[in-house]
Amino acid sequence: MDIINLLDEEFLEKKGLIKIEIQEKLYSKKNNLFKIRCFFKTDKYGPLNGSLFVFKQYSGIAGAERKKKETFMLNALGRLQQSNKKYQNLLVPELFCEGKDHIITYFISGETLLDYAERSENEKSSLANGNISSFLPFKNCIDWIIKFHAESKKLAGKSCILNDINLRNFIICSRGWNAGKIYRLDFEDWGKGCIEKDLGKLIAFILTYDPMFTEWKIKLSGYVKKYIVEELKVNSSDLETEIEMELEEMASRRKISQKQYSDY
Ligand SMILES: Nc1ncnc2c1ncn2[C@@H]1O[C@H](COP(=O)(O)OP(=O)(O)O)[C@@H](O)[C@H]1O
Ligand SMILES: [Mg+2]
What we know:
Elements: H1 9-15, E1 17-26, E2 32-40, E3 51-57, H2 63-83, E4 95-98, E5 102-106, E6 110-112, H3 113-122, H4 136-156, E7 160-161, E8 170-173, E9 182-184, E10 191-192, H5 195-208, H6 215-231, H7 236-253, H8 258-263
This protein binds adenosine-5'-diphosphate (ADP) and magnesium ion.
C-alpha cells in the first residue's frame, strides 16, 4: 500500500510531507492500520522528521460513519484536554490529518492494556503476593472511563459511554511527560449509556482474555470491582448485572460453551 498517494496534495505541500515508510501492520479486525514513519522537507516540521504516526483506514460496513464518530471525539477530547489542567489525564492521540476514508494520528509509544495484563500474569506479578502495583494501570483505565462519562455531556450533549472496552483500546504510555498515563484509542462505538455498562464490560474482558478465568484474573477483577464499588460508589448489583450480561453476550459471540462462563 502506498499511503502517500492517498493523501491530499495540498495537505502534503502545506506540511512539506515527502515520504512515508510503513513500519508495521497493526492488529485490527475491521480496519487497515499501519504504523508509519513520516519525512518532511521543511524545517517547520523539522523536529517531527522521521517520527512515527498511525495510519487508519476505515474499511467495511459504515466506514464513513465510524470515521466521523471517531474524529468528532478525538477533536472534542483534544480540545477539552488543552482547555484546562483538570482534564490532563483524559489523553487521546492527537489527530495529524484526515482524508476521505482515513486518518493519521501521532503514534503513542507503550504497551496496550492487554499486553500489560498478559505480561503481568505470565510474570506472576504482584497480585498473588498482596502487592497491588500491577493494579495501577487498571485503576488509571477505570479513572479514564469514569472521567469520560462525567464529561461526555459537555462533549456530545448527552451522557455517553465508550461501548468498545477491548483492552487493546488502551495504551500505557512509556515515553515523555505522560509516561505511565493511559491513552484511549478507538472512538467508533461511543454513544448514550450508563457507566455500569462500560465498567461491567471491562471486568468481563479482564476475565475472558485467553486463558479465561484463571486465578490471577479472578483476583484482578476482585480488585477492580472493589475499587469501582468502594471508592467510586458505583452500585454493586447494577455492576454485577452488567458483568453477567456481557459474559452471556461474549459466550454467544465467541460460540463458547455457556458452561465455562456460568461456572464463574
Ligand atoms: N495512535 C496510536 N498509537 C499507537 N498505537 C495505536 C494508535 N492507534 C492505533 N494503535 C494500535 O492499533 C490497534 C488498532 O487501533 P484501533 O483504533 O483500536 O482500531 P480498530 O477500531 O480497528 O480496533 C490498537 O489496538 C493499537 O495497538
Ligand atoms: Mg480497537
